[in-house]
Amino acid sequence: MDRGARQLLMALPCTVGLILTFSAQPTQTDEDLLSRNLSSLLSFFASDTDNYLQELSGFWSYNDTTDLSKYEDFDHSKFLERPVDRLEEVVRMTPRPVPMPPPQLPPVEAAAPEEVDEVDDLEQLLPNMPMFDNDMVTNITAQLGGTAFLNCRIRQLGERAVSWVRRRDWHILTSGVLTYTNDERFQVVHTDDTDDWNLQIKYVQKRDNGTYECQVATGVGTISHYFNLHVVIPTAYILGSGEYHIGEGSTISLVCIIENSPQPPQYVFWYHNDRMINYDTARGGVTVSTEPGPKTHSRLVVNRATPADSGNYTCRASNTEQDTIYVFVSKEGDNTAAIQRQETSGGFCSLPMILVYFFGVLISS
Known about the structure:
By secondary structure, the chain is an alpha+beta fold. Helix content is 24%, strand content 29%.
């Protein structure tokens, strides 16, 4: 056997002994590994290292679950109880990030004067949206039979179309300059190069009363402005009660008052049994006088009344609700004519006249 083989045989017992020695040592636990790692990190504490490691082992509560970490709920209070000088030493040994210099931005060149003017001009950058004039009158009063104008003024309209809608039945009356209703009383009035789009309603009727909408489609929605049309109906009423009693040969005097008329009527017509008598030349003795105003007064006078003048008398004006009264003309000697003389206002019976009437009836019976 050569020399190398002999040396190998001599070293074999030592190798087997070392293997048995290491295999006989207990397996290191996680806590032993933690202590060894901490001892390597805190070697600068010199002779007090063992005590320090023993205290650090209680900083965490061990968790034997499947959580991400086995060491949870780090107890900072124990760590802060260490001497301040050692903590400051640990902080000094902790590496800190090196601050990075700010990036170098290229210099900003000043914009040319013409470019600055374009940026400042916001009206050129934003689209011109249509706007309603806030000074428009939205409550319009029109007399029955008259003409109503609903004035809608829109600025910055551009190529957009203006539509008028009747809110009562959501009927589109007009769009642009076109009319979309068979009722020829409606039409839009617009003059080129103006902002006015006015709805005209001729011969206004009761059913025209209500709300109308002036609207514009902007592409992102619809903007609207509302107008309220109030139709006023003039009313005529004859002073006195529903009946007028007078004796033969007396004068019939009736007074008619017309109210709620923004425009006073030019003419007031009187009818006897549906026959106009304003200009009754055949009968004669008939006169009509009218005083226009906020309350128009019209007086009918019929001289030397006869029983043929009895009947219905009606006061009527253009586009006005009429009123009617019945006139009784009694022959001379009839007690009815004696006890119900009409005052100049017509139709008022006093209490003494009523007593005389009943007394006459008793005597005649």
